[in-house]
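How it folds
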Amino acid sequence: MMTPGRLANLHAQCFSTPRPWSSKEFQELLLQTSVHLVSNNYGFIVGMLMGSEAELLTLAVDPQRQREGIATELLEEFESLCRSNTVKKIILEVVETNIPARKLYETNSFIVQGARKDYYSGANGIKVSAIVMVKVL
């Protein structure tokens, strides 16, 4: 089971930009009825369902298990959850420089909708843009 502590630990292994979320942040987020966790032993997605739209807030997979299809499985499960809740569109933001994540989303039929310039604070305060991607279900 993915506890807030385990989520935070895995998130910290996967992210420096944007900064990893704390156990407390995961705990508070998961108390919201609109927030859903899709997880397995090696990764997770946290998403927010809001009427006909969903936002994929974060996706993390154990770095030693990446490129094994785990993220795609999690995405499929999240999309199934969305469909069963009459969601018509999933939105996400991904760090512009995170090419593996962008390829994952493109492979799974997400399309670039736009960008948010200097959206994230990276290492040493350097600003990094976010790419906004959308998938219509």
Notes: The first strand starts at residue 35 and ends at 39.
